[in-house]
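Re-run requested by the PI after the first attempt was lost when the workstation crashed. Everything re-entered from the original request form. Ligand of interest: nicotinamide-adenine-dinucleotide.
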Amino acid sequence: MGTASYQLLPGKVALVTGGAAGIGEAISKVFARHGAHVVVNGLPGDPVQDVVREIQALRGSAIGIEADVATEVGARSAVDLAIQTFGKLDILIANAGIFPEQHEIPEFPPERFEEVLHSNIRGVFYSVRAALPALRDTRGVILGAGSEAGLMGVSEAATYAASKGWVHAFIRSVAAEQSKYGIRANVVAPGPIDTEMTRPTKGHMKVKTALIEERSPLFGRRGTPEEVANMYLFLASDLASYCTGGIYMVDGGATTTTVMSGVEAKSEAKQAPEGTVELKHQYAGRGTLS
Ligand SMILES: NC(=O)c1ccc[n+]([C@@H]2O[C@H](COP(=O)([O-])OP(=O)(O)OC[C@H]3O[C@@H](n4cnc5c(N)ncnc54)[C@H](O)[C@@H]3O)[C@@H](O)[C@H]2O)c1
């Protein structure tokens, strides 16, 4: 990892919710590589302290906190830690989210619905609410984890898709409301990314849903966590000074097509690019909600 030869986030303080696994691990490590002080958040059971140690071992700056950011207390404790440790907060990455087991709606367990509401909706609301006073001081940035699922219907995953549609509308509303304080807010909407979430052998996604990667016309592969983190990096940086209220797709073109054109992708295109940070917790996103 080391430091990048040019740094896009020197001295910035970033809180990454769900920042110890999957896409969140990549965001935490890419941001640290670009000079940010990173507060790595996750649930109990997530490799939060591992990611902190891995960042520090490469002379990056990070501190960890296990907290359920879908509670007012948990979200506030993560923001407070950023301010106590690093003196301010510049960037909130509201990345924490879950993909529930898949069922048609009549069979969808109410307790799973509550978990989706909890992490994917309350988690975004409470972390944004807790961060805003500090972000007004720094004219900061909020980025939320949307999804291609928030733009398209997903069979047997209606609650997940709807929760992401909520994130899109909520973050855009934050952009509209908070711009007078100099705050920018955007959504990063990934397609199929290679994490625990999209691996049917590891997470809840059914094989037929995971085949969304075959819709990626150019590649016919899942995106890497770092390919998503790079969009977060750009939007969090001053390079994106004119960007607010947007939904930025990182989906390999999956939402451009209704057919599985990825099956025709050339085999060399299926080779993911080499990353700049070492990911050790790509498939470790299984923290437990109390
Ligand atoms: N992987 C994909 O293909 C994909 C596609 C579109 C959108 N997304 C979104 O991107 C985000 C990250 O996805 P991922 O694939 O890295 O997931 P992941 O399951 O690998 O990691 C998510 C992390 O968030 C943590 N988390 C969940 N609820 C939390 C809470 N209330 N408080 C604190 N931490 C919490 C989990 O324990 C886990 O460590 C999610 O919001 C997801 O919906 C992912």
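Saved to the shared folder this time. The mean pLDDT is 94.
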